[in-house]
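Bit of a strange request maybe. I'm writing a small parser for structure token strings and I need a real example to test against, not something I typed by hand. Could someone generate the tokens for this chain?
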Amino acid sequence: MDTETVQVGVVGAGSWGTALADLLGSKGYSVDLWAYEPAVKQVIEASRENKMFLPGIQLSENISPSNDLADVVSGKQILLFVVPSHVMREVSNQAAPHIDPASLVITASKGIENKTHLTMTGVLKETLSEELASRVSVISGPSFATEVARKHPTVVTVASDDADVAAELQKVFVTPYFRVYTNDDMIGVELGGAVKNVIAIASGIVDGLGLGLNTRAALITRGLTEIRRLGIHLGANPHTFSGLAGMGDLLLTCTGSLSRNHTVGKKIGEGKSLNDILAEMNMVAEGVKTSKSVYNLSRKLGVEMPICHAVYAVLYDNLAPADAVYQLMTRDLKDEMQDVR
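Reply from user aminoacidic:
Good idea to test on real output. This should exercise your parser:
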């Protein structure tokens, strides 16, 4: 796509939405960026910096911030949704009447809706026109927003049911510091990106309890088993979970100091309450809400996910973190390979 003629809309001016808008703006695309908060729009206009969600980064002059959702999505060839998962349905419903039927719609949000257990592409497919829904895509992988904005080498994947759409978006997003692969397994890519946030909370709890590297390594490994188990049940390609949206994103989120989900878990392990932790945050830790979805979905499907269930019990049933670890360590003994045969 020609950067001089293609119009891009980015819906969501959090850290990740702003970083992706800056990436595209720096490539020469004209980008309209929708911010929910009037203050965010005003600060970006005045200083070319999103001081609330992506401080310290000078943003491309090609970005035009706006609080007018209809204006941001209208007449765009590429439309990127990067809003918290729990507001995706509301925002996409509001945006839908104004979107050009020829637009390529892509989401970079990671989560599973609580009531429907749909991934974000599932929500978009329900709320957009049939023509738009057939071309919905997702971008995911190990990618902290601040590091992308600082142009640190980052590698992600774009997944779509339409190979031509994936290839087109691959070209749109790729830069010398942002490498993009394609994938045809949308459900696998999305589950990897969503459930890893729940495992990251568990990893943070382990670190907050001071349990060491052995424990964390075991947690990440068995956490990946749970993600793959759910994914296979829902028709995903098991190889996806060995890739960027699976193991790659899981490792980053479970070990990186920039991970909001890991931070939430660590503070819980240190003895702080969930309500107090969330009150101190100005950005969403998706794993907190996704843990409800994963708990309820896995029970409904009969998929065994003990780590995710333990996280849910700690967050919502007042299970002490140390007791959760003890329960996991004293479960019935099993053959490690029983899930991959």
